[in-house]
Description:
- With 105 residues, the chain is mainly alpha-helical.
- It has helices spanning 2-81, 84-100.
- Helix content is 92%, strand content 0%.
- The protein is rod-shaped and about 135 Å long.
Amino acid sequence: MDLERLIVTEQRLDEALRGAREEAARLVAEAQAAAQRAEAELEAELLSSAERLAAETASERERREREVSQEAALTVACYEAVPAERVSAAARDVVERLVAGEAAP
């Protein structure tokens, strides 16, 4: 009778061990799948962030280029607005001062 109980107990333990191993394998597989999903989501998020940053950077660069171009156009317009007679008079004045040995004002 004791041998029979021992065999039954051993069979139950073997079955429990087999079940525990199957459960452990299932849990490991689920954890691996969840980790792969999380990794894929993170990779997609990083790619999206990199693309968004590149677009923002390009947009900012284009905006700044427009600003610089507008500032340059305004500066050129100011210089072009100075009459030629005034430039000639200023140039003559500078030459006369240099020839006379005077310091610039």
